[in-house]
Structure formats: C-alpha cells, structure tokens
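To: structure subgroup
Subject: Chain for Friday's discussion

All,

I'm putting the inputs and outputs inline so they're searchable in the archive.
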Amino acid sequence: MLPVRAKRLSEDRFFCLLDTFVLIRLHCFDRVTLNRNDGGALQTRQKETMGIPIAQVDAFTDQPFSGNPAAVCLLDRPKEAGWMQQVAREMNLSETAFLLREGETFHLRWFTPTIEVDLCGHATLAAAHMLWEWGVLEPSAQARFQTKSGLLSAEKKGEWIELDFPAEPPTEAPALPALQTALGITPKYIGQNRFDYLIEVESEAKLREIKPDFALLATVPCRGVIVTSRSDSDRFDFVSRAFAPRAGINEDPVTGSAHCGLGPFWGERLGKNAFLAYQASARGGVIRVRLAGDRVQLGGKAVTIFQGTLHL
C-alpha cells in the first residue's frame, strides 16, 4: 500500500494525465468539421493541413530569375473560382496555374492577380514542368490539359518542353488613337486576334525604347498589346514585348500565347515555319515557334525556383 503522500501524488498525476487526455480528445474533435458539400461526409482539418502542393517556376528560360515566373498549384479536389483568384492575388505573379486531375488529363485554369484568362503559355509550360518534377507523370508521358481554349498538350523534348497550342493569326485592324498615343509610336502594321492587338514597329531599337502610358493603354478593349519587330541579332528571327494592364500586368516578361499570333504573322513575312524568338522584357525569355497548320508548337525551358504547400 502506498503511503498517504505518495498516494496523493499518484492521484494528482492520474488526474493531470486525464485532463491532458481530455484536452487532446477535445482538440482532435475540434479539428473535425462537417462538410455538407460532400454529402455530409466528415473531413478532418488535419488532412487539409497536409497541404496543397504549390511551386514557383521561371518559364521560357534556363536561368533562375529570368523568363516569366508562374505559380503552379496541384489540387486534389475542385475549388471555387473565388478561392483560386485569392491565391493568385496572394502569389502576385503574372499567372497562377491550377491543376486538377480528371482521368488521363488535367483540368487547367489560369489566373492573373485580377482576372481569369482563357489562354496562357508560360503557366502551361510551368504546369507541365511541375507534373514531371513532382513525379505525377513519367518524363516520357505527354501532359494533356482541358482548358477554356480546348485541349492543350505538352511533351518533353530533351531539355525543352514543347506545347501544342491553337494558332491565333491576326487580321489587319484600323488604327486606334489611344493605342498609338499610349505607346508613343507610329506602327508599320496593326492587327488583332481574339485576344490581343499586334503591332509591328520598324526596328528592335524602337521596340526597346517604348515606355507605355499604362493608364491609357488599359482603356484599349483587349487582353493585351503585343509589339514586335525583326531582331537585330542573327540568333533570333523576331523580338517582341507584351503589355496587358487591363489584365493587371503592365508588362508581361514572356508571353507564350502571344506567339500563337506572332508565329503566323512572321510566317507570312519571312516565308518560313520555324523561328527562334526573344521577348525583350527586363527579365527576357526565349521561345521556339513552329507552325503546324492551325496549331502552333511553342518550345521553352523551365527552372523550379521553390516548392511548398498551401495550408488552406
């Protein structure tokens, strides 16, 4: 038999342990929530704290801190558009891509910090890159995406990733005073496709000198404005810059989808169907462009900058 003092200490220890056990049970119970959107099934917040994989990738470059950065988020269940827009605003990059597996393909959506867009090249390249990096797909497997612009695909070609996108050839468009004033240029050509205005200027020097009035440019009714010229370098066929203040991006560092229009445009002028292009933003980026009927093959490299998890 325990002495009275020892017995009291033992009882105190027992009740202390009991209190701790109760607190743990209450804490665990508090982590359980009823999700009526899933037929009343119980889900645990603890499962959610495992996190949603997210990464930042520099696309259309093989050097960190150049090309165009995009965030890639791999979902395990559908999310509301408002939630995705909030994540994109938090990431504050030109695009955040959201992937959700659907059988043999992935549903893919793209958000700028302010709006959802119908087509994005660099974030698609980044998304494909991360599916291979995460081991979701084998390196030899094709990545297939269901998007607002139809079925898109990506394949690894050595160090390059090649995207299969729709061609978006521009048609000649009338001059817009606000457009020319905002850019401070006299265009050689003005065209338009379903997304953007495409403007040719006389030289790469003129293109690099452009300092847009972004407030005025944001009044032009289009996704963005692409300015292009022949390249001064023997390495590249043409150069470009892309401005999209209406979509929340004053100047996009490298715009894959712009080359869906630039490819057909320069194909007519140069009489060829394969190009190496350079986007002359501050970060800069390199895009391989190949015309294939009503499709455009866009090639680029990608660099993973960081990976993490969203605890939301």
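Points worth raising on Friday:
The chain has two domains: 50-157, 171-300.
Residues 273 and 291 are 5 Å apart (CA to CA).

D.
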